[in-house]
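Work through this:
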Amino acid sequence: MLTPQAVQSPKTPSVLLEMGVSSIDHYTTRYGGMQTCIEILDTITKCNPVLDLLPEGHYTTRAFITDNDRVLVAERRKTLQVPKDMNLLEWAQQQNLQHSQGTDDFLTTISDPQLVIGVKTAVLTNFARRQAIRETWGQRAKHLNVQVIFLGCVPIMSDIPNEADRKRLRDAVKMERTVYRDLLTEELECEDSYRNLANKVKAFFDLAATMYLQTPYVMLADDDMYLQVDKLLRLLEDFSGKKPVYLGQSWNHIYTRKSAPVREESHQSNLPKAQYPRSELPPFAFGPHYVVSMDWARFISKNYW
């Protein structure tokens, strides 16, 4: 049960979650099929599995209360005097109208880069993250012969009822593509949603294998990652001339724990038996960041696209 220990303020209560177990096996057996739920005024409002692909290890956890408007985050940013993030529409409104003229075709600016980094991003909602990358490690990557591309797919606007609002968003996306020439949408031939993430990745490998014939390495990263590109390039020097190369963080190796495929159809990581019948997954680098040599990208492009 969740037991209140010390309430510091109405927004930041402290709670203790007690689990009486003596081993990982006992923990899995006892709590593997259970869920942790939040109940407010005798109404269960949110439940999540206690175990959700959690690797073996020692953890310090926090439980906190926030809201959809990110009030607590906003207060923290105000305390730190962090400038307000600009969304896509706000940015587009500030741009010179001359940017809206001309083509929005994707144009690479680096010939035969040493590394191509595909950054997975949500086109309509994650503009601020793309800007943060462009102004920090993405800018420095250009001087290191590294190409940074934002992987967006076609934005889904079916939940936006007003046609005028949809047009403003389409125009803003077009303007971003025209100004920065680093954002892919229609080129990847997929819809921009989390459930279509695998298709986005496959489409990027296909584009990279076709467009960057002399590039030795391809990387995938999330748009909330900060990459030290200079250190990454030095690491890749150790693998020069070696094929294939597949680098990343693997739970199997870090936590000496085998991973099982998720069979629940509603789960975002569902892997049906028809696609993969085995009960264990081979070691793999998990999603936020990994690097493969271009021969792997070509293999994926040839066999899975």
Notes: Strands lie at 2-7, 13-17, 35-40, 43-49, 115-120, 146-151, 183-184, 217-222, 246-248, 289-293. Confidence is low (pLDDT under 50) at residues 1-12. The chain has two domains: 2-69, 88-249+285-304. The chain is about 30% helix and 15% strand.
